[in-house]
Amino acid sequence: MAPIERITMFKIPNEADRDRVLEQYKVLAKTATKDGKPYITTMAFGPTIPDPRNKGFNLAVKMTFASLDDMKYYDTECDAHKALKAVVGPVKEDIVSAYFESLV
């Protein structure tokens, strides 16, 4: 099975809230574990570069998981992700997420 690539974008109106979310992603990058080991293969995140094509989404995150099961664990069981959602939930205006198996 090919790795799973996941892209998530957020609309967070307040700059201070965006900074808090980015700080929480730094925490997640250090603390997300499954069976005591890191399981997110790669992660990149940051503010988007202003452009009309981003339709107001101002934070972007790209993660790679070794398997769909790992991504499902992230969504449903990961304590680090639960902590992130607690920070993001009250401040986000919108969120979009998509995932896929890379063909290359």
Automatic annotation (TrEMBL):
<dbReference type="Pfam" id="PF07876">
    <property type="entry name" value="Dabb"/>
</dbReference>
<feature type="domain" description="Stress-response A/B barrel">
    <location>
        <begin position="4"/>
        <end position="100"/>
    </location>
</feature>
<protein>
    <recommendedName>
        <fullName>Stress-response A/B barrel domain-containing protein</fullName>
    </recommendedName>
</protein>
<dbReference type="InterPro" id="IPR013097">
    <property type="entry name" value="Dabb"/>
</dbReference>
<dbReference type="InterPro" id="IPR011008">
    <property type="entry name" value="Dimeric_a/b-barrel"/>
</dbReference>
